């Protein structure tokens, strides 16, 4: 077994997954790499940058931040743990608008959107790690009751990887249109800044 830490290959590149870990380490590492890359693509923008669009699409980086924050909390709290969405979502507008998080983001302060996303990732990251430590990837999660068939934690995590794969690709295009930022991974040593003043 390698002496590389299981969570990352280095402190200046925490998004780089382990090269020789367990299935759970690789799955969580792939998800974390996508989280870091998405956050890099959405970082350090003001309200205009977060509301910018690419071509005829109505998709924005602000909308993606809010959507992925909701997905993080939903995947862990509701699908995995069988709990209600955290209090951050109490005043949501999903009744009658399935795309509320996308459409409402333009009204939100950039600092709020970054904090909402970062908080949701931190909660989900800790919750998933704890769940894996206690019962592994094969454990049945609360989503089983929602769909009427067995659902493993592994499936919930793979769904999150798929969710991020789609939206990180979209964020690539939108961010390049905003200010030309490109690249597969953040540069070594990068950390989120948040909202531009």
Automatic annotation (TrEMBL):
SUPFAM superfamilies cross-referenced by the UniProt entry: DinB/YfiT-like putative metalloenzymes (SSF109854)
Domain of life according to the entry: Bacteria
InterPro entries given in the database record: DinB/YfiT-like (IPR034660), MST-like (IPR007061)
Pfam families, per the entry: MST
Name used for this protein in its record: DUF664 domain-containing protein
